[in-house]
Design a protein that fits this description.
Elements: H1 2-10, E1 14-17, E2 21-22, H2 26-35, E3 43-46, E4 49-50, E5 61-63, H3 69-75, H4 82-92, H5 100-114, E6 119-120, E7 129-132, E8 155-156, E9 160-164, E10 171-174, E11 178-182, E12 185-187, H6 195-206, E13 210-216, H7 220-227, H8 236-244, E14 249-252, E15 259-261, E16 266-272, E17 279-281, E18 284-285, E19 291-292, E20 295-297, E21 299-307, E22 313-315, H9 324-343, E23 347-351, E24 361-366, H10 373-382, E25 392-397, H11 405-415, E26 422-428, E27 441-448, H12 470-479
Parallel strand pairs: 1-3, 2-4, 5-22, 6-14, 24-25, 25-27
Antiparallel strand pairs: 3-5, 7-21, 8-11, 9-10, 9-13, 11-12, 12-21, 13-16, 14-15, 16-21, 17-20, 18-19, 23-24, 26-27
Helix pairs in contact: 4-9, 7-8
Length: about 475
């Protein structure tokens, strides 16, 4: 994480804050101002975070590190993260080679995939300092943020949470906020739809303690992988290895059999005890822009904390958009666009505008060929992983720029007859959605803003758009340059 911060600074993407800044709301005020600046502002390296007890933390704090398109590309090690989209597209479209050049390209992609499998090492930088439970102040030494005034306490906001399926041993890495109750216990906010919650349910059924490890920092590709919408059972470390074109080195935890990246800045080891009652967690100022209320979640007991000597504490805040999470979400959609296109070849592009706070609103453009094709896309997307949470899907034609919200809204207003072109259905919704009457259950709406075909009952003859000829535009540009 320190190396990433240095790269951001060299690229003019980071501001150092040298004076003390309190983790109690002041970091949020600085970060929120920066995140809402044009293009996501800059990353902030706060050299002297002031802890809740008034002392200064020994660990600098990095925030908004992923909060722009440029910084996301730097995090993934490319000039433009859409380069990776092309690589993934080449893999999912791989066909038997017809030339030596094609054979070499296929072989090269295959070698890259071989290197994605994580390796195992005996130790690593994350083991430079080892603190067992009860030795010192534990989590109280870290600059953990109290983000918003009514928050239930300080929250770890950028954790990579490692769990394991007790039946088949498959690993999952998720990102679940953690409310700090004291130096050695936190909440573990994995919602009912999350993979870690499914793992936890199996441990609850057997009554066994569930080992959990939380990693902070390390390779920024790992944090991206933890937020990526991968299918259940697909190891996020394979994605991180693919992005890096090398194996992610793993080291065994001190107090459990879980394995974690050896280059992590911090590793927080512990367990969830299924015999304990759920503990009140929250409120928390969430990515919805509102506080999520108090609810019962498992308690995470810390058994060991290990860290680098020069560890850098990573954090983020969420709230009314735009925020840093918008850029993480956009990069995920861009990278997995080839997978969407593999399932739905008519898709041209997909966008999740910031106003939709991740998954409330999705724009998708298609090459329309037959009646009711837009509805096929709506149903298909609602059936793909976390897309099930999407409240509103707007489908437009291929010539509409879904990255331009104004362009989408223009075509929505121009092209729909609301009664004819809307679809309502029921299904699961995000556990954080306060608008629904019953928790986790709600409705979804789709809007077909494409040109209507006679087969869809439209017989008036669809009008043409008002567009000037290219020759006239070129001539005017030549005679009257801007």
């Amino acid at each position: 994480m320190s190396a990433f911060a240095q790269r951001l600074e060299a690229e003019g993407e980071l501001i150092r804050i040298k004076g003390p800044v309190s983790v109690d709301l002041e970091v949020t005020a600085l970060a929120d101002r920066e995140m809402k600046s044009p293009g996501g502002g800059k990353a902030l390296l706060i050299e002297q975070p002031r802890l809740l007890d008034g002392t200064l933390s020994a660990f600098p704090l990095l925030i908004n590190a992923y909060g722009s398109r440029r910084r996301m590309s730097l995090a993934l090690g490319v000039e433009n993260h859409r380069e990776i989209e092309k690589q993934i597209g080449a893999i999912v479209k791989a066909k038997p080679p017809t030339s030596l050049r094609e054979a070499w390209d296929l072989l090269r992609n295959g070698i890259d995939l071989i290197h994605t499998r994580p390796s195992r090492v005996s130790s690593g930088p994350c083991k430079e300092v080892i603190l067992k439970a009860g030795e010192g102040k534990g989590l109280d030494l870290l600059p953990i943020l109290k983000c918003w005034p009514a928050d239930g306490g300080p929250f770890v906001t950028l954790p990579n949470v490692y769990t394991r399926d007790p039946d088949n041993g498959s690993r999952n890495i998720g990102m679940y906020r953690m409310q700090v109750y004291d130096g050695w216990t936190t909440g573990m906010h994995w919602q009912t739809h999350k993979v870690a919650a499914r793992h936890g349910k199996r441990y609850y059924e057997t009554g066994q303690r569930m080992p959990v490890a939380v990693c902070l920092g390390g390779d920024p590709a790992l944090t991206f992988a933890a937020t990526a919408p991968l299918p259940d059972g697909l190891d996020e470390l394979l994605l991180a290895g693919f992005l890096r074109k090398k194996a992610i080195p793993l080291v065994k935890c001190e107090t459990s059999d879980l394995e974690v990246p050896a280059d992590s800045d911090f590793v927080i080891e512990g367990y969830v005890d299924p015999t304990e009652p759920l503990r009140p967690e929250g409120p928390f100022g969430d990515h919805t822009g509102f506080y999520t209320p108090v609810d019962g979640y498992p308690t995470f007991h810390v058994t060991c904390i290990t860290h680098r000597k020069d560890a850098l504490y990573p954090a983020t805040i969420v709230g009314k958009p735009p925020m840093e999470d918008f850029y993480l979400g956009t990069a995920a959609v861009d990278l997995f666009l080839p997978v969407f296109k593999m399932n739905f070849p008519e898709i041209v592009d997909i966008a999740l505008p910031a106003e939709g706070v991740f998954h409330n609103l999705v724009f998708v453009s298609i090459k329309k060929q037959y009646p009711y094709q837009a509805y096929k896309i709506m149903h298909g997307l609602w059936g793909m992983g976390q897309m099930m949470f999407t409240k509103l899907i707007i489908v437009v034609d291929a010539d509409v720029d879904v990255r331009n919200t104004s362009d989408v809204l223009f075509h929505l207003c121009a092209n729909i007859d609301p009664q004819r072109d809307s679809l309502f259905t029921k299904g699961p919704v995000d556990a954080l959605d306060h608008a629904v009457t019953v928790e986790n259950i709600g409705s979804h709406a789709g809007f077909d803003a494409t040109r209507k075909l006679p087969g869809e009952g439209y017989t008036r003859g669809w009008p043409e758009k008002c567009v000037l000829p290219e020759a006239v535009l070129a001539e005017v540009e030549r005679r009257f340059p801007r």
